[in-house]
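User: Quick one: structure for sequence A, then sequence B.

Assistant: Sequence A:
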Amino acid sequence: MIFSLKAARWAFSASAIALVTGLAACAPQTTTNTPPSENTSASPAASSAAGGTVSISGAGATAPNPLYQRWFQEYNKINPNVQISYDSVGSGAGVKRYLDQTVDFGATDSALKADEKAKLAADRGKPVQVPTTGLFVVFAYNLDGVTDLKLSRSTFCGIVDGSIKTWNDPKLAKDNAGAKLPATPVTFVHRSDGSGTTSIFTHHIEKACPNWKAGAGKTVEWPVGTGAKGNEGVTAQIQQTKGAIGYTEYSYAKENKLAMASVQNKSGAFITPAPEAAAKALEGAKIPDDFALKVPDPEQKDAYPIVSLTWVLLYENPKDPAKAKAFNEFLKWSLKDGKQYATELGYIPLPEDLSTKVTTAVDTIKVSATK
């Protein structure tokens, strides 16, 4: 399958609405019952509760958390009997809880590996891994007087490997002619927990930085820097530290009004982080059958370079078919009516052809009898 811009009809809003309250918190959040709005109608998920409340729990990636919370909130307005809580603990913890079967669904920004798939108990069937949206990772920074920072590949490589130690380094000065760069030490902020955002970021670093030795994945041995938990924690650490720079998902930096650097892509262009530019990185991409798409260093000349899909993890044979059925209906709603909220918050909605394939995969889940 080809990831098509035309099919997606990317329509990005000129202004984004505020993210849900508590973006800086890592605790699980549960939607509350709210009367349906006048212009919406309840989906079949409401009837699956048979008059009672269906409480669904998930855990995992922090990058899509703002969107997920918004989706849960809006969906609950039209389906008051369906309440979905989500613990924003990072992809590593989310995958573990999914494999341990302590949640109804997991979430990850790093597609499952073969050895992880093999750990799922046989009675749960095959792992069902489906994308929910596209997202992108930015270099956010805290540097007085510098509002339009540019980072060439050699420069951001030097920041993450520790060879660039101060903001007035000659490489940074060359990238930013005319900018008044201070002698302030560079403080690189990275994730301390197992993180799909780290996986996205380090897979790009591995491609872009010839001297990178730490590899790529949800956890790496960082040669330099300060760790923080979750996109929430990295964002807060950057806010609190003069001279800090780190990687976080775009919506976190945007909502917290952090400055974001323009990043040089493979073609040599400096690209300002924006949903439109991020979407170009996915244009024409071939989606594998398990949806585990990777675009660590996109070729497109106008593409922002640090982009990925993000996935939810479901059970082919769920313990509770009623919960699975209700969550499946929520997912179908998110792929259609939920696209407007993805756009508003700065995520990349899935195109129609990919949404159709996701729906087909979700329909393989057995919801007629307890397994």
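Sequence B:
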Amino acid sequence: MIAELLGTVALLVLFGISQPDLYRTKLWRAGHELGFNSSPNVILYAYANYEPQPTLPFVWSQAITDFNVAISVLSLFLLLSKLIAFIMHVWFPIVAMAINISLTVLYIVSIYGQAGPDYLDPNYPSSVAWYIAKPCTVAANLSVQGNCKMAKGAFAATCIMFGIYLVNIGLTVWALLPNPANDIVDDEDDDDSSPTALKKGGNWQMHSIPPTPRTGTIPFTPRTMAFNTLERKLPLRNQYA
């Protein structure tokens, strides 16, 4: 959970800074100038020619930015909920499996969105975003290089979180597997209430004591001994009788 917390905080900072559009359009425009992808001017062309807006690539859309912010906030909320459930001993493996699988799928979508393809312009097709596939130094502008490094950092943090949730899934699967040790412990608990366990020094205080078997002689009790002492004649009384 410590690694998950560090990764979540890093994503909250990086995705929060990038909202609403700190560097997305700048990287889009820089990639077109370098000949790597389409141009953001297609939006202006559509407005100028009274044409419907084209479907923007997911990697350059506002949806991917909002999506990344949403999953970072959701990850923090679920992490806090998991910590509370773990302390209260209600963090069951089946619940953990559902949550970890859901978050893993969300982070797969985020990775795809950050490094997704761009086929909007047939003259400049791109299967992977240039700031992921290429070094930031391909851009001469220092500002673009800084934005590229920030985008790379957010992508790396997302991949780390994806790896953490994969490990969580593996641990959850391991926890769901049948464990013979649990059956052994249960058997030992059941055997503690048997007569054999009582003979071996088990917890016998809570069990009823078996009745004394009847015999032909009168049971000898402390009260019987007291009555016998009272009826017995003392030696001095016998001497002066």
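The chain has one domain: 2-178. The chain has a mean pLDDT of 82.

User: Thanks, that's what I needed.
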